[in-house]
Amino acid sequence: MPLIVITGVSTGIGRACAELYARRGWQVVGTARDPGRLGDIAWPGPGSVHLEPLDLEAVGSGAGFAQAVLERYGAPEVVLANAGMVQFGPVEAAPAAEIERIFRVNTFEQVGMATAFVPAMRERGSGTLAFVTSLGGRMTFPFFAVYNASKHAMEGFSEGLWHELRSSGIRVKAIEPGFVETAIWGKALPSDPGELDAPAAYREQMLAMLRFEAGISSRTTPERSAEEIARALDDPGDRLRYPVAAYARPLLAARRLFGDQRMMRFFHRRWLG
Ligand SMILES: NC(=O)c1ccc[n+]([C@@H]2O[C@H](COP(=O)([O-])OP(=O)(O)OC[C@H]3O[C@@H](n4cnc5c(N)ncnc54)[C@H](OP(=O)(O)O)[C@@H]3O)[C@@H](O)[C@H]2O)c1
User: Fold this and answer.
1) pTM of the model
2) Ligand 1 pocket, Cβ-based, cut-off 6 angstroms
């Protein structure tokens, strides 16, 4: 049974990917901060899903997890580094500890995990290392600067790793979702804009961004995103970047067509007036 490691399978995109690969007959090693909470999920077959605890807020957790997987299950065919979190707010008001936390979870421990998997995969001469980055790893949205910067870092890391591993047989892929209907936004954004805790200088603009976010009508489901991600992972070619889900392809195409500066002015007017 081929082995896929997917981080963050408790909800959203990771959960849909774990279900899809279990249906495909793969052995899935999935993570959650508290796997005990997922005890009642009936994972589909004919494959299997093994849950392992992973909290990426802990320094060294990514590399430690990879070592444990290699010892317990062997070298995976595919690693899908999916777990992540969003931060919303003006840069000026972001506490240093919060910035560190976002980069720890979305960037540093992802790098640590990937690095720890590489030697075993390189020795075998095959496999795929895929990082769920974001449309926000290619462009930046106001008040998501810290989150987007953590994903831009993963885009840069993936591109460098692509070069370094190209002759090794390991394929490196950056999966760039646009907007997907998951719990991630609700964890970072106030459910009631009236409860927005914001510095006065930014309040109106942040409310405008919340209205924009709430007005995005056509998001992709996690299930459809998982199908697109599986197609990307199946691709035997050496392509690095895969925009998936709502808005990812058209927005990136528009940015290429019109250039960075014009697109930034256009979106600034549209989002913030
Ligand atoms: N939804 C979108 O529109 C969208 C767009 C672009 C990119 N993405 C990216 O897609 C990935 C999956 O997001 P999603 O939308 O599916 O969100 P989600 O439903 O909130 O799932 C996030 C997963 O990451 C895990 N996670 C969060 N913090 C963690 C930590 N400190 N340590 C270990 N695991 C942690 C969560 O597990 P717990 O149960 O332990 O919290 C959960 O399984 C993320 O990397 C996100 O940035 C999403």
Assistant:
1) 0.97
2) 8-14, 32-33, 54-57, 82-85, 105, 132, 134, 177, 179-180, 182-184, 187
CA 255 – CA 258 distance, rounded (Å): 5
Q: Which residue has the tokens 């989002």?
A: 271
108-167 tens-digit pLDDT: 999 999 999 999 999 999 999 999 999 999 999 999 999 999 999 999 999 999 999 999
The CA 261 to ligand 1 mean position distance, Å, reads 30
User: Got the DSSP string for 62-101?
Assistant: HHHHHHHHHHHH-S-SEEEE-------S-GGG--HHHHHH
136 CA from centroid of ligand 1 (Å): 14
Measured over all CA atoms, what is the biggest interatomic distance in the chain, rounded to whole angstroms? 56
Residue-wise pLDDT tens digits, 167-196: 999 999 999 999 999 999 989 998 888 888
Ligand 1 closest atom vs CA 185? 1
The residue nearest atom 26 of ligand 1, judged by CA position, is: 83
Catalytic residue check, 247: no
The topology under which CATH files domain 3-192+219-252 is: Rossmann fold (3.40.50)
